[in-house]
Design a protein that fits this description.
With 327 residues, the chain is α/β, with parallel strands linked by helices. Helices cover 46% and strands 18% of the residues. Strands 1, 2, 3, 4, 5, 6, 7, 8, 9 and 10 form a 10-stranded mixed sheet that branches.
Length: 327
């Protein structure tokens, strides 16, 4: 046996060992440069607001800047796909939310990504309860009264949303399914125009974000019937939750951080630990609570379970709404 042949297995073994050690070493050094956090919407929306509140202190904990990158278009699906196709090295992350991550792909004949197959969950971050609003002309002062009114006038009441397939639309469709009522959907080009239509009594009801609704509730231009979430909102302490109102469904929008599939586990662990530390800081909790967001930091495994449950829930709602036949 020649010297070269004799030493070949050792060389191959050494090369293999080095190849296995390289990702671990890279993860230990991570991060060595700024991190991009994709927000799949224009500046000014709730997910953009969350990103800009959380990113600076999270970057401080990680030791590198986290740069918010707004990538709007196609109801958030352009930015979400961009994140799915990014290199799995921990330097491109997504602040995901239900519309483009869960609902949009189920409405598409040819979805370009899958929440479970193309992403690695890092952590849930926060949730934002919706509030069920009606125009004061509507003679209902509770969810039960609204349901009774809708059953007495099937197909006569309508509701606004910020667009077909987004959370405010789908939550109302879930309400319709749970309560067995018939309300007519009127989509608008954004939550703002939808709120304007509700104020003008062009529509009867709407699920909306609490901060957007507060000024109109204080001026009595709108009436709140119930809020989503597991407990009453400190900003609307006199308004019962949906559960207290006698209905069992979730009316919140959630936001969580995901990395591209195959991101090294050590990097995911570091991202999760630092994000949880950032979110659970007292100053962060106070800042987000003040604007009606609830902290929901979770493990990557719990976030993955949450994604699976959301896909199952919205698949049923989409089929029942007629937006798309059941798969």
């Amino acid at each position: 046996m020649s010297p070269v042949t004799r030493h070949l297995p050792m060389a191959i073994g050494a090369a293999l060992a080095l190849s296995l050690l390289a990702p671990a070493a890279a993860a230990q050094e991570y991060p060595t440069k700024p991190i991009r956090l994709i927000v799949a919407s224009s500046p000014g929306g709730p997910n953009d607001l969350i990103a800009r509140i959380v990113a600076p202190p999270w970057g401080d904990v990680l030791g590198r800047a986290i740069v918010v990158d707004n990538r709007a278009g196609a109801a958030g699906m352009i930015g979400t796909e961009m994140a799915a196709r990014a290199a799995p090295d921990g330097y491109t992350l997504l602040l995901g939310f239900p519309g483009p991550l869960i609902i949009g792909p189920q409405l598409s004949d040819t979805p370009s990504y899958d929440a479970l197959k193309d992403f690695t969950p890092v952590s849930l971050a926060v949730s934002a309860p919706f509030v069920l609003l009606v125009n004061p002309n509507v003679p209902a002062r509770s969810m039960k009264e609204l349901v009774a009114l809708a059953k007495a006038r099937p197909g006569k009441l309508n509701y606004a949303s910020g667009g077909t397939g987004i959370s405010s639309h789908m939550v109302m469709e879930l309400f319709k399914l749970v309560a067995a009522i018939d309300l007519v959907h009127v989509p608008y080009k954004g939550a703002g125009p939808g709120m304007t239509a509700l104020l003008a009594a062009e529509v009867d009801a709407m699920f909306a974000a609490i901060p957007a609704a507060l000024p109109h509730l204080k001026s009595d231009r709108l009436r709140a019937l119930a809020v989503g979430g597991g407990q009453r909102s400190p900003l609307l302490s006199g308004i019962p939750t949906i559960t207290e109102s006698g209905f069992q469904f979730d009316a919140t929008s959630w936001y969580g951080v995901l990395a591209p599939l195959n991101t090294p586990p050590a990097i995911v662990t570091r991202l999760h630990a630092t994000l949880a530390r950032t979110l659970n800081a007292q100053s962060m909790r106070a800042q987000l609570t003040e604007i009606a967001f609830e902290i929901n930091a979770s493990t990557p495994e719990a976030f993955a379970s949450h994604l699976r449950a959301e896909i199952a829930t919205w698949s049923k709602v989409i089929a029942a709404s007629g937006l798309r036949s059941s798969k």
